Amino acid sequence: MTDLIVFRYGHRLLRDERVTTHCCLVARAFGCKKIIIHGMEDPILIKTVQSISDRFGGTFKIEFTENWKPVLQQLKQQKYTLVHLTMYGQLIQKAQKKLKKTKKIAIIIGSQKVPSDMYTLSDYNVSVTNQPHSEISALAVVLDRLQDSTKIKFKKAKIKIIPTEKGKQVKIQK
Ligand SMILES: C[S@@+](CC[C@H](N)C(=O)[O-])C[C@H]1O[C@@H](n2cnc3c(N)ncnc32)[C@H](O)[C@@H]1O
């Protein structure tokens, strides 16, 4: 499986709390090993996501940074391909063939406007529809296109959902 991480550019307390939390949940659910959040450290967000991981398993991690560029440069040195999601980019349908062969990918998503050098530092600028929408939706679509999401495993899950056509079925692990 591809080694996937997410870099979230910009997190403002109160204003971005819910959207950043949902970005974390999408990243976790689609098998990313961590999210790096550029912005203010947010203990409530960490607690919310940790409580999901405690119950549903996996080893998803959250890190915060105040300096976006050195972190992305470091990821490049570690051989991560930087994929910036932006409505101005090339369509994911065009980029996905090459990206699916890539072993290490860091997906960058914005909140407020990203600096213009994000476009040049990134190896790919990729779009989902070339229409303005949301980092949560763009992230989910791209992560689903890059891998077979049915193969993702969540170690030490206490709750496992049994897919069911009607109703709810869960298995509680002791
Ligand atoms: C709500 S948008 C912010 C747009 C911001 N006002 C700007 O001008 O860049 C937040 C993030 O959603 C993602 N996004 C929005 N629409 C997208 C699209 N069509 N394709 C890929 N990513 C998109 C981008 O990562 C963007 O930085």
Layout of helices and strands, plus pairs?
Layout: E1 3-9, H1 17-29, E2 34-38, H2 43-56, E3 61-65, H3 68-77, E4 81-91, H4 92-99, E5 104-109, H5 117-121, E6 124-127, H6 135-146, E7 159-161, E8 170-172
Parallel strand pairs: 1-2, 1-5, 2-3, 4-5, 4-6
Antiparallel strand pairs: 7-8
A few lines on this structure:
With 174 residues, the chain is an alpha/beta fold.
Q: Numbering strands along the chain, what is their spatial order in the largest sheet?
A: 3-2-1-5-4-6
Compute the separation of the termini in Å: 28 Å
- The backbone outline, from C-alpha atoms, is globular
Outline the biggest β-sheet: 6 strands, parallel
Low-pLDDT ranges: none
Radius of gyration, whole Å = 16 Å
Question: Can you tell me the number of structural domains?
Answer: 1
- CATH homologous superfamily name? SPOUT methyltransferase, trefoil knot domain
Report on this structure.
By secondary structure, the protein is of the alpha/beta class. It has six helices and eight strands, in the order βαβαβαβαβαβαββ. It has a six-stranded parallel beta sheet, with helices on both faces. Strands 7-8 form a two-stranded antiparallel sheet. Helix 1 runs parallel beside helix 6. It is globular. The model has no long low-confidence stretch (mean pLDDT 96).
